[in-house]
Amino acid sequence: MDSALVYKSNALIEASYRLSIYEQRIILGCIAQVRRDEAFSDQRLYTVSAQQIADMTDTQLGTAYQNLKAAAERLFRREVTLHEAPNGQGSAKIRLTRWVQEVVYQKDQGMIALRFSQPMVPYLSQLTEQFTRYALTDIARMDSAHAIRLYELLCQWRDVGQREVSIEWLRHAFQLGDKYPAIKDFKKRVIQPSIEQINEHSPLWVKWDQRKTGRRVSHLVFTFGEKAPGETGVDANKSNKHKPKRKSNQSAQGAIYGIPTSVIEAAAQPGESYEDAALRLLEEAAKRKK
User: Fold this and answer.
1) What's this model's pTM, rounded to 2 decimal places?
2) CB–CB of 92/85 below 8 Å?
3) Tell me: the pLDDT tens digits for 95-154?
4) Which domains does the chain have, with CATH numbers?
5) Distance between CA atoms of residues 53 and 19, nearest Å
6) Per-residue confidence at 246, pLDDT binned at 50, 70, 90?
7) What pLDDT, on the 0 to 100 scale, is given for residue 142?
8) Nearest-CA neighbor of 210 among 276, 150, 281?
């Protein structure tokens, strides 16, 4: 599985679904086994073992066994909502289906065997255009399902190096429901940890900023690129680790809320925008005065 590649239709990359981190590892481990030079059938069984997951993620075998069993019990019930036909055919239909039609947990072998559902077949095979590819090892060390989803969304625009998405769309794609309704919590619990994991474990470096519609934060803007060969996440972001991304209308010599941008840059935390860092500094100053 070390050199395996994951191929997904872009429609599946942008689908709305929720999988735990272990469910993601099972699904992606099986997708990576789909051969592009062979006919793909919903009748074929794909298997993933606890030993393979433990080796891939560098975790304890006992932990992998325990989580594999729990994931197997949930995986059969997981749904996915697709908003577009595979290969960019432009269908206006919304398709609600399941990932798999059968899941078998082989307890004595510590292994899961599954069959993908028939409607999922065209989203995983015979992809001639409008698809995304990445190495399974890119996400192996991530322990956040949100980080994996965000990484896939960035890989989809890998040649561009920037992607802007609405927060409403991202929340729907991640199926967050009523979780983290405040933008502050959404960024703290979902976006910032995902960015940190992508920077630390994947071949990409990524920074992010936010855009407002009126007075409300409505969109997130991700800027990303390939790390240099042999470069770690720490190396790639060393010079900019505490430096927030400046908006085009912010001068390097200016100030936000009366705080010079040079002060904001020096005090900023990883993942903070200029505005967020300035607000935090104001809040901290107010607390000190009390």
Assistant:
1) 0.77
2) no
3) 899 999 999 988 888 899 999 999 999 899 878 778 999 999 999 999 999 999 999 999
4) 1-141 (1.10.10.10), 146-241 (1.10.10.10), 242-290 (no CATH)
5) 16
6) very low
7) 96
8) 276
φ and ψ of 114, to 5 deg: -140, 155
Which carries the bigger pLDDT value, residue 259 or residue 145?
A: 145
**Side chain identity at residue 274, one-letter code:** Y
**C-alpha span between 1 and 257 (Å, rounded):** 51
**Which of 240, 274, 272, 273 lies closest to 254 in space, CA to CA?**
274
Describe the chain by its helix, strand, coil percentages, rounded to 5. Answer: 40, 25, 35
DSSP conformational letter for 232: -
DSSP-based three-state secondary structure for 190: helix
> Exposed, middle or buried, 182 (CB in 10 Å: 0-12/13-18/19+)?
exposed
CA-to-CA separations, 141 to 5, 29, 126, 198, in angstroms, rounded: 15, 13, 29, 10
Asked whether 81 and 62 are in contact (CB, 8 A), the reply is: no
According to DSSP, the residues that pair with 9 across neighbouring strands are: 131
* 90: phi then psi, degrees, rounded to nearest 5: 80, 25
Q: How far apart are CA 276 and CA 33, in angstroms?
A: 43
